[in-house]
Structure formats: structure tokens, C-alpha cells
Amino acid sequence: MSNKNTYVLSLGGSLIVPDDVDFKFVKSFKNLIEKKVAEGNKFIIVCGGGGLNRKYNEAGKKIRKLSNEELDWVGIHATRYNAQFIRIMFGDLAHNEIIINPHEKISTKKPIMIGSGFEPGCSSDYDAVYLAKTYGAKKVANLSNIDFAYDKDPKKYKSAVPIKEISWSGFRKIVGDEWKPRMNLPFDPIASREAEKLGLEVAILNGKKLKNLDNYLDGKKFIGTVIK
């Protein structure tokens, strides 16, 4: 897979499994990506854990006290389950194995590769950033259920302001430098640190608005936050 016309997408688990599997979204997302593949594009799609991760985390903590590393491993395997599901939905268009290690380059003629979580201490956003490095992509699109990143948590503060464009230094002041499992942030702090080092551009978009994603992939005006 060459870096020409290669897009790295960090697909939030909340889109795949908000509570139960959102098959309508997955079907529509699949149709869009397949259309883009027919136009000559290639995709690396990294899946988050979503509701599956949340349910296992909540259940585990009711049984015994779990360390952050243990909670991370639960989340990692949730991302792998979701990734296998998405890979299978793309059929023969997808590479036949999910990518677990973002540092190892895989040789494939397939136009779609599906990735998952790798190791404790970060989220699947980190894997998307390192896959961009490994395959020479310059941009990552983070797809979740929000239209923009905000200067503070909009669920807590009515005065929160949406951000259209921001530098990495400015963004990292908002998200901080530490990762904890189930952090509700627009982009993982560890992934943000690495993206800044690599000089990557990250766009945060509402993945449910597929026409907007279509515009982004076409290089057209889109609704979202750009970090660079």
C-alpha cells in the first residue's frame, strides 16, 4: 500500500457500537469507503472500542479493583473485536488480517487495511498516528460523534467554544499529557504528542455525517476541527 491517496481514519468505537452494533451506520460507512476505493483511494481504518469497551470496563470494576493497565487491555481487545467485524464487512477489499502493531509495515495489494489497539498507555488514536507514520500518510481523520473539538468540555461548561483550527501546542494545553482508560477527549493526549512530533495534520469530524466525511476526502470544505 503506497502513501499516494492513502487516508488514515480513526473510527471511534462509539460509531460502531454506541450501545448495540449500529449496523445502519456501518453499512452506510462501508458504502462510502467502497465508493472512494472505486475512485482510486486507499484506506487504513483504526477501530475504537466504543460501547463494547465501556460495558466490559463497567462490569470488570464491579467484580474487583482493576489497574489502568488491565482496563487498557480490556479496551484493546474490544477494539480488536470491532476491527475484525469491520474487516469482515469489507470482504475481499480488505487485507485478511487486522493490524495490531502500527510500527510494522505490511505488504498488501488490498485497498483497505483495518487496525485496532496495540498496547496499554494510549488509545486507538495513537495507533492511527503511527500507522500514518509507517505508511507515509500526512493526515489523519478522527471520526467520532462530535462536530468539533472545544476549548473545554461542552457537557460541563455552557460557555465552551467550538474550535475550527488550532495548533498542536494549543490543543495539547487543552487535553493535557496523560492518558487514562475511558478518557472522554476528542484526541488522545499521547497520540497528540506524537502527531505534533511527526508534523501530522489531524481533522476531527462527526463520523455520522457521511456527506461531510465525503467532502473531507474530496478536499472540499467540511465541518470539523483541524489541528496542525
> What series of H and E elements makes up the topology?
EHHEHHEHEEEEHHEHE
Global geometry:
globular
Average pLDDT metric: 93
Distance between the termini: 25 Å
Can you tell me about this structure?
The two termini are 25 Å apart. The chain contains eight helices and nine strands. It has a single domain (6-227), classed as Carbamate kinase. The protein has a seven-stranded mixed sheet, sandwiched between helices. It has a two-stranded antiparallel ribbon with strand order 5-6. It has 228 residues and is α/β, with parallel strands linked by helices. Helix 3 (50-63) runs antiparallel to helix 4 (68-89) and helix 5 (124-135) runs parallel beside helix 7 (189-198).
Task: Explain briefly what this protein structure is.
The chain contains eight helices and nine strands.
Keywords:
seven-stranded mixed β-sheet, 228 residues, Carbamate kinase, globular, 8 helices, 41% helix
How do the strands and helices of this protein lay out in sequence?
Layout: E1 6-11, H1 13-16, H2 23-38, E2 42-47, H3 50-63, H4 68-89, E3 112-115, H5 124-135, E4 139-144, E5 149-150, E6 162-163, E7 165-166, H6 168-175, H7 189-198, E8 201-206, H8 210-217, E9 225-227
Parallel strand pairs: 1-2, 1-4, 2-3, 4-8, 7-9
Antiparallel strand pairs: 5-6, 8-9
Helix pairs in contact: 3-4, 5-7, 6-7
